[in-house]
Amino acid sequence: MELIPVKEHIEDNKEFTDDPDCIESVTMSVNFYKRIGFNPPWICYYAQLENQLVGCAGYKGKPVNGKIEIAYGVFPQYWQKGIGTQIAKQLIDVALETDPSLIITARTLPEENFSARILRKNNFKLLGPLIDPEDGEVWEWEYMK
Asked: Which Gene3D superfamilies does this UniProt record tie to the protein (predicted)?
């Protein structure tokens, strides 16, 4: 599994804008950078496995107060193949290689779902519900080192 960075400007992401699985999310990523800044490695990525783009991933901004939030998704044709677990692991590894003291968090819908299973497989603990300003009620998770 390899994480391939989404570049700051849309015109620099031709390999993604030409891919039907990526066209919507690459535009969202570039627009996200315009709002929060482009701060590698705290950026958006596509996950590549055996020369195929299989999902997307990223950090919801740079660390704040020693915390970073991860987010990830798997393209539908690759669901239920363990890819989400691998993508989350890659995000964890990049974060800890960059700053081993970081607290890594994630948020999911407030229900048992595939994302909850992915996080548990990656040693995240459910902290409980909270209200996210953009997403409403969510469950917050924290990585246990």
From this structure: 3.40.630.30
